[in-house]
Write a structure and sequence with these properties.
The complex is a heterodimer of chains A (235) and B (289). With 235 residues, chain A is of the alpha/beta class. Chain A has a domain at 1-78 and 198-235: P-loop containing nucleotide triphosphate hydrolases (Rossmann fold, 3-Layer(aba) Sandwich), CATH 3.40.50.300. Chain A contains nine helices and ten strands. In chain A, the strands form two sheets. In chain A, strands 6-7-8-3-9-10 form a six-stranded mixed β-sheet, with helices on both faces. Chain A has a four-stranded antiparallel β-sheet with strand order 2-1-4-5, covered by helices on one side. In chain A, strand 4 (58-65) and strand 5 (68-69) form a beta hairpin. Chain A is globular, with a radius of gyration of 17 Å. The two termini of chain A are 32 Å apart. In chain B, strands 1-2 form a two-stranded antiparallel ribbon. Chain B has a domain at 11-114 and 138-217. In chain B, a hairpin with a 4-residue loop joins strand 1 and strand 2. The longest helix of chain B is centred in the N-terminal third of the chain and has 32 residues, at 3-34. The chains are: A alpha/beta (235), B mainly alpha (289). The interface between A and B is medium-sized, with 23 and 19 residues.
Chain lengths: 235, 289
């Protein structure tokens, strides 16, 4: 695995209005890695992704994406560095149908999938292609949210709780899609509550508590450290 | 009541409805994208009429060139106002947008009253559009038919652009979820500038079409905008096609009232507005927010 840094987060702070959420987060992701951020609800995982995308307006510290400092950039410039974002709430547009949802994000890098390839990968989206985005089931919406960033050519993806509230068969399908992305050399940050799901895919786990990274666990250490992981997650 | 009178008033109603449509369409685009209730829309309509008059009288530029140039000029003025003033208040309550655009309206209108006084100025119908057709049941002046046709085409082109093209797709996405749309790499702040420019350009185009019918005066927009806001309340802010259909229907209804109960013609739209507010507060085509 190459050592090339895709993302370096250094001492990042973040606020929602008056509440201080991120208290100096530091982490990094290398090219081709799958990294998870795990931790209990309210630890600041989603906020960290929003800080990386620049849609958290009050943020400090340093976030470097492929060598470019982004802390002062607006979100549209950060996205154009080749990042694809799949938000926790999925962000499917109700006023756009499935095809329009897929076509919406501008291409940010070469080599994105074509609409045909996406429909081959997700045949059920093809069947619903004329439906308004929000008429889809939860699983279909999640597929659409993932498929949408595959078209853009982004090689660095942020996935926020892609399996939340979904049936096991759909979780499996999403897991297979993420494995496919990994084989294609994409770099991923995965925020996930479902540790069993995350541990099969990830090279490294960052543990977050109270707006800070409190531990890093490599894939090789997962079995040995299962007890502390369970206590971090409260399971 | 003669058929002549009935169709004559329906035509007047259709023309008024066309103006309501062009103004409320712009309002719907601006409200959707910027969250601002643009009270100054009437001032941009007046600006359209006045720039048309000025181009002819100061530069010798005629009607058809004005039809092309004036919306561009008004749109650019709008874009400049958005970039310098409106963008500073997006994080504040809707009420601030209302107050700011109210101030902009008073300023534009006041400047024109100061330099041109309130008297109406005539604008001659272009020679290609003088005369008319005898349709048997009524006489249709060519220019009036042109106004209805031109505004319908303009409204439908705008509707098509928003609902069926890739630019419109981006515009709808930015209207629904601006933050996420930015996170996909779309420059939403620039889109808002363009959206405001297009919204007021529609009012400017209406001003050009109005110049040969209504006298060009600094107050022409203030009179119209009150009715237009009633139309918008009836139609609801949510839908582009809704704005067009409601405008034409209410224009026709106003014309019909002039025939059957002339005393009520100035009131009818406001009565409908009251009923709609009581029964369906989000408007006929609006979505509850």
């Amino acid at each position: 695995m190459s050592d090339q840094r895709v993302l370096t987060v250094d001492n990042v702070t973040g606020h929602y209005g008056d509440s201080h959420i991120l208290h100096g987060v530091s982490m990094h992701v290398n090219e081709g890695e799958v990294v998870t951020i795990i931790g209990r609800n309210g630890a600041g995982k989603t906020t960290l992704l929003r800080a990386i995308m620049g849609i958290l307006t009050k943020r400090g510290g340093s976030i470097v994406v492929r060598g470019q400092e982004t802390i002062a950039l607006p979100p549209e410039r950060i996205a154009r560095l080749g990042i694809g974002y799949v938000p926790e709430e999925r962000g499917i547009y109700a006023t756009l149908d499935v095809t329009e949802n897929l076509m919406l994000p501008p291409r940010v890098a070469a080599g994105g999938m074509s609409l045909d390839d996406i429909y081959k990968l997700f045949p059920n989206l093809y069947e619903r292609r004329r439906s308004p985005g929000t008429r889809l089931s939860g699983g279909e919406q999640q597929m659409l949210a993932i498929a949408r960033v595959l078209r853009t050519g982004a090689k660095f993806l942020l996935l926020d709780e892609p399996t939340e509230g979904l049936a096991p068969v759909i979780v499996q399908q999403i897991g297979a899609t993420i494995e496919l992305m990994k084989r294609q050399g994409m770099t991923l940050i995965l925020v996930e509550q479902n540790f069993r799901f995350a541990s099969r895919l990830a090279d490294r786990h960052y543990v977050m508590e109270h707006g800070q990274i409190v531990d890093v666990i490599d894939r090789a250490q997962v079995q040995a450290r299962m007890d502390s992981i369970k206590s971090y997650l409260g399971i | 009541m003669s058929m002549q009178a009935l169709f004559g008033q329906l035509l007047v109603g259709l023309i008024n409805g066309s103006f309501y449509a062009m103004l409320s369409l712009g309002l719907a685009i601006i409200f959707g994208l910027l969250g601002i209730v643009n009270i100054a829309q009437g001032a941009f309509y007046m600006l359209g009429g006045f720039v048309t008059w000025m181009l002819l009288n100061y530069a010798g530029i005629g009607y058809f060139w004005s039809l092309l140039l004036v919306p561009i000029i008004v749109g650019l003025i709008g874009a400049a106002i958005e970039k310098t003033l409106l963008k500073k208040i997006y994080n504040l309550d809707h009420m601030y947008g209302l107050l700011l655009t109210f101030g902009i309206m008073m300023f534009i209108q006041g400047m024109f009253v100061h330099f041109f006084a309130t008297a109406g100025r005539p604008y001659t119908v272009p020679s290609a559009l003088t005369g008319g057709y005898n349709l048997g049941f009524m006489f249709l002046p060519k220019y009036r038919g042109w106004v209805v046709l031109a505004s319908l085409v303009l409204c439908l082109v705008t509707w098509y652009a928003i609902e069926k093209t890739s630019i419109g797709r981006t515009l709808r996405a930015a209207t629904e979820n601006p933050t996420l749309t930015r996170a996909f790499g779309v420059n939403v702040p620039a889109l808002m500038t363009i959206g405001f420019g297009i919204g007021v350009a529609l009012a400017g185009a209406a001003g050009v079409l109005a110049a040969p019918i209504y006298p060009v005066s600094p107050l022409m927009g203030a009179e119209l905008i009150i009715t237009v806001f009633a139309v918008v309340v009836v139609g609801g802010m949510g839908s582009i096609m809704g704005a067009i259909v409601t405008s034409l229907m209410l224009g026709l209804l106003e014309g019909l009232t002039k025939v059957v109960y002339p005393q009520g013609s100035n009131m009818v739209i406001f009565v409908i507005m009251l009923i709609v507010l009581l029964v369906r507060p989000a408007g006929l085509f609006g979505r509850e927010r």
